[in-house]
Amino acid sequence: MDRRFLYAVLLAIGVLLITPKLFPPVPPPVTSADTAATVRGDSAKGAAPAAGAVVDGAKGVAGATGAAPAAGPAAGPAVAPAPAPVRVDTTTIVTPRVTWRFSSAGGALIGASLADFMVLPAHERHVELARAGVPLVSYRLLHGGDTVDLARVAFTADTAPAQTVAYHAALPAAAVALRYTFVADSYLVRVQGMVRGADTTPMRVVIAMPMGLASSEADTLDDHRSLAYVWKPPMDEAQSEPFSTIVKKGPIARAGPFEWVASKSKYFLLAVIAPDKPEFSGPVLFSSRLTPPRDPEAAKRAPAPPKVPAEATAELVVTPDAQGRFAFEVYAGPQQWRRLVALGHGLQDANPYGGFARGLIQPISRWVVAILLWMHDTFGISYGWVLIIFGVGVRLILWPLNQSAMRSSLRMQRIQPELQALQAKHKGSPEKMQAEYMKLLESHGMTPFSQFSGCLPMLIPMPVLFALFFVFRNTIEFRGVPFWWMSDLSLKDPYYILPIVMGLSMFLLSWVGLRNAPPNPQAKMMGYMMPGMMVVLFLGFPAGLNLYYGVQNLAALPQQWMIAQERAKQAPPRPAVPQKK
What we know:
single chain, Beta-galactosidase, Chain A, domain 5, 20 strands
């Protein structure tokens, strides 16, 4: 069997095995309708008021939060008072980038509407990060063995300078103050807090954020699949845990310290960031609550629906300093690569790419994003044309390597008759066969590596291809970008035109590559099978990825044609067939 066929088969098997590892399937997520319905059910029992339910300056009455604090190392026994209704004021602060909303119930951040981003596909309203009834940032106090949920406490708004929101409250065990200061032209708000206990019992603050943000995407299923918590230890890479894993396995605790902890969707990020020094030293607990079992009588009347999480939270424990002070920053905005790089702390890696191949794919992803953004800004063209130019450019950069590898493959083809003769001559002497084989390679200016170099052109672009998959999955700059008949390059082609074009271009490339080559049924079969396999694999991939790969195939055709012509010139003349008299 021809060695090139074996290499092609191994490469195809490697692609089929590696792809599911890099892009693992995710269990069906909780739909926003299910989650919203569960939250409304809790609200009826006394949950915190819905975000945005009270306009700026208006007042209402809300009951105490009904959710029990999550179990784990961070939480002590819960206090079970009979709280009176809490009077709620909602304060709205409008900045150039974000409309922020705060509640006097616990001084919580309950909403963030982004002025520069619209809900897709209708573009009818601005993106809102908070889900109904779920605050973005809320607080609890750990005082000895007790837990005090500040959402049950009515805070008083202080008279504060412009672009600042401040709250304070007096509890039996402590006095609490919170101040939010907004950073101009940014999605960042700085938070300063003060906790002064009535006794010497140590107090800690639990900062809670939700699992997942409100979906604003055309493909809500893909958006829910991207829901995850992310955290970054100092001097280490960011780590993540998908929401589906937390729901399946239960609470997951991680020990500090941390530079930041975040809840993310596909394109947006809610991150709690520690000051430069010290980092958050306490633990963080990721947990979810399942809906309670249905009533047995109701279960008899209708099939029981699957259990869905009523809510999930990340709870980060912060220890105030000796004066009771603590501080952190909140980023509530898009995962724009340049903006996150400028913020520092490694926030640009809030999407850990590549699975087990992260060490290779993550750096390539950074370079790919930087190059694509630079091309878009420098040439002032759409991202569709950026991808076309990028695909041609990558092929041109690889031209010398491809040329060398293809000519090495030609030399291997030329020595096949001599190699077969050596194998027949030294069939019973492997040592002699190896020595003669090395002499044969040396006489043709080749090395043992030459037989593998023909696969390099296929292997080298693979990390870039995988990196582009992740780039299109989470790079917000491609969100909602139209090109030709496609309304969004980050989504699959609605008519499947590009996957088919990509497959046809791959078939044409294989057909040209087999011209003037020695007859090889196995290689011919692979040339027909691989394009079809790739079309099936790429049907659900982003349209931009299909565009890039199709352009790469078309840009490789001239070089493949030149090699085919060179192969035809160097082919040995066919022996003449004797004529019958």
